[in-house]
């Protein structure tokens, strides 16, 4: 179905290595908790059940603009509501990248994960799954013009079928459809786009997804896949050992199945959100990018907010690090050097996940704050190098002349070195800030609602792959170009003084 | 000479860079109003010696005594206070390129001595007049010739009313036609009674202006003598050899 374990595993290893101590402690805690299992009691104490999901997967979960506010809706959210309601608590939905969901579960960021997730044996090793709440069928999406040409996957000998990278569909096709060309992409949206533009001849998805796309996209239709499915049952995931929660959820799920709530209530409800009860034509009109301007505005807001705060703290900490490296205190110098080398030698992605999940084991840091911390800490290392090399580029004779006149080390730095160094530092700093804005987009991985995140949401919501990307690109360019122009104006002013 | 007031005393000064022992055992004294010319082959340690006098370089061992204070024992703050009393002029001028000439001169009096802007400016203009550059106050260093820059550097050092002036080959980076104007300023300064230590290859200046010539080689001051005596009858083979090569060039 969705991207499985493999990426997660690598990330987890990285997080594990970095948090060896706290992790071990948490594992110990996990064991004692398994015996007593007070998970349900704790949830009731909090009064809320936190559900993690990746809302780019209609009709399971997706973001909908309701009365000007974006809200996560879909069949899985309805299931979550039911489970929370039966426990007597409020449901809180927290959004994350699909690959981060299980880590979020293990590190206590969320109490449960409902994300159209299959209970594969591999996943079951690290989390506890409920009974399946939905059994999906496999379908293929094809172009309406090919109606009658294809009947199931066997009709595609020599043709190509698309599936999400690393998904269950991809695995099944690889095993069962030997003479079919398999093309994988990251997002279902891109696959449907590929179908319409003849890059693939069919897209392999589950029934719920297939129906959602077919209802909202002109020129495509659903046919049976004909694939033998092994495990296509979606379940709710809990922390390993949270048996009290699993038990309670299973009771709710039994009722959902008995009353066929999914087909009778949840899916129609989700479908209503998808189409808002409109005709195809009306859907198309509401899918125009203008209707989503609030999403992009919110995204720009978050991106600017994160960038501005990170630039400020990145610069502050970077300056401190630079002076630590240039100073005479050997310990401060070593610390600063180690910090700069370590940060520059590791990916921002891992640093972000470490702050959010790793440090999250010790103190609970919200996603937005985690993003700001990670981007600031990362930027500081680069800023430190920019400042340091700017200062080092000033001839040593300048310092000697200044010191020989009786100016202190600090006064020399302030009146003689920095004014000259700033002319080298400023343009490089501008470049650094521009790349900070671009790289801040990584915070969308942990569900921060920045520009990239919003563009994904709009993609998922409108079933349009390219247009949201074009708009996002233009918006990023306006921001970065605006910033670098501003820096140049200041630079020119500086050179005139 | 014997009852002259000592300004700088150096005792058993040693300076190593890693395992490279540049100054081995230097003992010397500079008296008030004296002009010392320090000469010697390149790499002898002349610059290092000068930089040890105002502690731009930290001596490895030995003492530097200035105004009755043992410099190597002082804190950073105290050192800053004493450094302003020793003006230094560098081979490469080292003017601050982001400041105008007058700003170059005003900086230390204002930031270190706390002079007001107008007082510092008045003093700066007077010193510029003294080195013949009154009309260049608002120019920037890059628009000046080497000789002019070096004269500004001298004025900048003088603005702190130093007790002693240290010159490290002040004319070596200059085109030959500009050497004279800088030496002239230095000679005027000497005539006004400024205590000076001058590292130089200008033998004419040493002969005419110095009270004493010190010859440095191999980490030691090999000879100290009045200029007439030193140039006429150098005592050590090292000095004889050096003079033979310099005078023939
Ligand atoms: N900062 C330094 N680090 C290491 N070696 C130095 C340093 N400064 C000077 N030296 C060495 O000390 C020796 C004397 O240099 P210097 O005092 O500049 O000689 P001079 O001024 O007489 O030409 C040279 O061998 C030079 O390489
Ligand atoms: Mg030298």
Helix content of chain B: 25-40%
What order do the helices and strands of chain B follow? EEEHEEHEHHHEHEHEEHH
Q: Give the overall shape of chain B.
A: globular
The distinct bound ligands, ions and cofactors come out as: adenosine-5'-diphosphate, magnesium ion
- Averaged pLDDT of chain B, please? 93
What fraction strand of chain A? 5-15%
- The share of residues in extended strands of chain B comes to 25-35%
Strand order of the largest sheet of chain A: 5-1-6-15-7
Give the count of helical stretches of chain B: 9
Mind telling me the C-alpha Rg of chain A? 26 Å
Task: Please tell me what the overall shape of chain A is.
Answer: elongated
User: Which whole number gives the mean pLDDT of chain A?
Assistant: 84
What's the N-to-C terminus distance of chain A?
A: 62 Å
Largest interface (CB < 8 Å): A-B, 18 and 28 residues
Query: How many DSSP H or I helices of chain A?
Result: 20
* Cα end-to-end separation of chain B: 34 Å
Counting helices, strands and paired strands, the structural category of chain B is: alpha/beta
Let me know the number of strands of chain A.
15
Number of strands of chain B: 10
Strand order of the largest sheet of chain B: 6-7-8-3-9-10
């Amino acid at each position: 179905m969705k991207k499985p374990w493999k990426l997660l595993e690598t990330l987890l290893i990285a997080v594990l290595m970095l948090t060896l101590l706290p992790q071990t402690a948490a594992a110990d805690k996990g064991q004692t908790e398994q015996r007593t299992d007070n998970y349900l009691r704790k949830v009731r104490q909090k009064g809320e059940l936190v559900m993690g999901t990746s809302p780019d997967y209609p009709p399971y979960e997706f973001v909908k603009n309701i009365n000007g506010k974006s809200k996560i809706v879909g069949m899985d959210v309805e299931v979550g509501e039911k489970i929370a309601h039966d426990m007597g608590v409020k449901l809180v939905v927290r959004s994350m990248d699909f690959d981060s969901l299980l880590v979020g579960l293990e590190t206590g960021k969320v109490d449960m994960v409902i994300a159209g997730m299959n209970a594969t044996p591999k996943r079951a090793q690290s989390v506890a799954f409920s009974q399946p709440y939905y059994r999906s069928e496999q379908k293929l999406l094809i172009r309406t013009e090919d109606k009658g040409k294809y009947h199931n996957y066997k009709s595609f000998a020599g043709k190509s079928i698309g599936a999400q990278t690393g998904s269950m569909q991809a695995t099944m096709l690889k095993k069962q459809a030997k003479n079919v060309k398999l093309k994988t992409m990251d997002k279902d949206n891109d696959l449907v786009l590929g179908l319409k533009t003849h890059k693939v001849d069919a897209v392999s998805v589950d029934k719920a997804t297939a129906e959602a796309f077919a209802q909202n996209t002109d020129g495509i239709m659903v046919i049976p896949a004909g694939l033998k499915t092994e495990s296509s049952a979606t379940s709710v995931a809990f922390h390993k050992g949270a048996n009290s929660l699993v038990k309670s959820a299973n009771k709710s799920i039994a009722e959902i199945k008995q009353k066929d709530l999914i087909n009778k209530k949840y899916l129609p409800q989700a479908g209503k959100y998808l189409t808002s009860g409109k005709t195809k034509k009306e859907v198309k009109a509401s899918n125009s990018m203008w209707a989503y301007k609030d999403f992009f505005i919110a995204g720009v807001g978050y991106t600017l907010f994160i960038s501005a705060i990170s630039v400020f703290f990145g610069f502050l900490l970077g300056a401190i690090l630079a002076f630590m490296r240039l100073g005479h205190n050997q310990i401060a110098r070593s610390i600063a050097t180690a910090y700069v080398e370590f940060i520059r030698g590791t990916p921002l992605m891992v640093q972000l996940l470490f702050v959010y999940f790793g440090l999250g084991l010790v103190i609970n840091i919200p996603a937005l704050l985690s993003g700001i911390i990670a981007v600031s800490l990362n930027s500081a290392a680069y800023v430190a190098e920019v400042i340091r090399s700017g200062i080092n580029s000033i001839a040593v004779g300048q310092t000697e002349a200044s010191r020989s006149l009786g100016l202190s080390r600090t006064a020399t730095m302030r009146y003689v070195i920095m004014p000259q160094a700033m002319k080298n530092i400023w343009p490089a700093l501008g470049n650094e800030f521009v790349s900070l804005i671009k790289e801040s987009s990584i915070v969308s991985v942990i569900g921060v609602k920045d520009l990239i995140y919003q563009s994904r949401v709009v993609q998922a919501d409108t079933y349009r792959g390219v247009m949201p990307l074009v708009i996002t690109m233009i918006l990023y360019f306006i921001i970065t170009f605006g910033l670098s122009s501003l820096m140049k104006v200041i630079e020119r002013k500086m050179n005139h003084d | 000479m014997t009852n002259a007031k000592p300004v700088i005393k150096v005792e058993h000064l040693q300076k190593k860079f890693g395992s490279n022992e540049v100054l081995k055992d230097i003992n010397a004294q500079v008296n008030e109003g004296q002009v010392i010319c320090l000469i010697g082959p390149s790499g002898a340690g002349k610059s290092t010696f000068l930089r040890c006098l105002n502690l731009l370089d930290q001596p490895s061992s030995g003492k530097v005594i200035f105004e009755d204070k043992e410099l190597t024992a002082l804190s950073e703050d105290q050192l800053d206070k004493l450094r302003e009393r020793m003006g230094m002029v560098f081979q490469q001028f080292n003017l601050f390129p982001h400041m105008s000439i007058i700003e170059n001169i005003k900086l230390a009096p204002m930031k270190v001595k706390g002079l007001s802007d107008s007082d510092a400016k008045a003093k700066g203009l007077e010193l510029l007049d003294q080195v013949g550059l009154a009309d260049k106050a608002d120019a920037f260093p890059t628009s000046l010739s080497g000789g002019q820059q070096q004269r500004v550097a001298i004025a900048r050092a003088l603005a702190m009313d130093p007790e002693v002036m240290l010159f490290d080959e002040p004319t070596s980076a200059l085109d030959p036609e500009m050497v004279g104007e800088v030496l002239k300023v230095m000679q005027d300064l000497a005539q006004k009674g400024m205590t000076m230590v001058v590292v130089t290859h200008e033998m004419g200046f040493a002969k005419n202006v110095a009270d004493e010539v010190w010859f440095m080689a191999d980490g030691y001051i090999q000879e100290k003598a009045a200029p007439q005596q030193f140039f006429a009858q150098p005592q050590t083979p090292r000095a004889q050899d050096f003079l033979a090569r310099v005078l023939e060039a």
